[in-house]
Amino acid sequence: MNLILLFDDDFTSDSRVRLTGRRLQHVRDVHRAAAGESLAVGIANGRIGRGMITHLGDDALEMDVALDRDPPQSLPLTLILALPRPKVLNRVIAGAASLGIKRIVLINAWRVEKSYWSSPRLTPENLRTQSILGLEQARDTVLPSIETRRLFRPFVENELSAMASGTRALVAHPHATEECPRDVREPVTLVIGPEGGLIDAEIASLERIGFTPVSIGERILRVETAVPFLAARLY
Questions:
Q1: Do 81 and 170 have their domain in common?
Q2: Got the DSSP string for the chain?
Q3: How many structural domains is the chain composed of?
Q4: CB count in 10 Å sphere of residue 168
Q5: Are residues 111 and 61 both part of a single domain?
Q6: What's the domain range around 175?
Q7: Do residues 215 and 138 share a domain?
Q8: Domain stops at, among 28, 50, 69
């Protein structure tokens, strides 16, 4: 935890917070901090700064906080992601949040197993928890918006074009002939399919609304590797 993310209900006054649970345990057992030390803090969707520990006990942590600067700049990237396997979903969401991706849409695709949609890891509570972990890692405070769309065709035909308006629309595809661009200076809407790839009909439907298939080379990457690879290449 490189930043302790604070929420409105943590505040006991305008500049003092009281923390329990996971954050208390982390400060005590990992940071091994003591009263008088300061730690990086930030308020959710707001500014970051420092927190001076005034009390650290078994039951609670209290800090005086001063928030004096803005969080890191977000990536101008909307990520449209075929729902990954449940066991990697947590890593993908935490990783995307740590990269500064602020809008994520989890979609269905032909090669997405139906059982994935019933996973408890897809609950709003878990997605929020993984987002928080990613923000704490990256010293960021702005929570990403995470949406789900269980029907591929209606989403592509009725929503995606408007969502991608004013951005460079790309879809990662192993068989594309065009290479993924580098050092892009404009917002991007990026579609990444399942590990088996989007089928031809899905690629065609994306091309019809203006998405360009792009390749990242001969290697086929796992989704948790493809997301940071593509974000780094684009920006």
A1: yes
A2: --SEEE-GGGBSSSSEEEE-HHHHHHIIIII---TT-EEEEEETTS-EEEEEEEEE-SS-EEEEEEEEEPPPPPEEEEEEEEPPPHHHHHHHHHHHHHHTEEEEEEE--TTS-GGGGG-GGGSHHHHHHHHHHHHHHHT---PPEEEEES-HHHHIIIIIHHHTTTSEEEEE-TT-SSBPPSS--S-EEEEE--TT---HHHHHHHHHTTPEEEB--SPPPPHHHHHHHHHHHH-
A3: 2
A4: 19
A5: no
A6: 75-234
A7: yes
A8: 69
pTM, full prediction: 0.94
Residues 97 and 19 occupy one common structural domain: no
**Same domain membership, residue 187 and residue 225:** yes
CATH number, domain at 221? 3.40.1280.10
**Residue 65 tokens, joined:** 């906080």
- The tens-digit pLDDT sequence of the chain (235 residues) is 899 999 999 999 999 999 999 999 999 999 999 999 999 999 999 999 999 999 999 999 999 999 999 999 999 999 999 999 999 999 999 999 999 999 999 999 999 999 999 999 999 999 999 999 999 999 999 999 999 999 999 999 999 999 999 999 999 998 899 999 999 999 999 999 998 889 999 999 999 999 999 998 888 889 999 999 999 999 9
On whether both 33 and 91 belong to a single domain, the answer is no
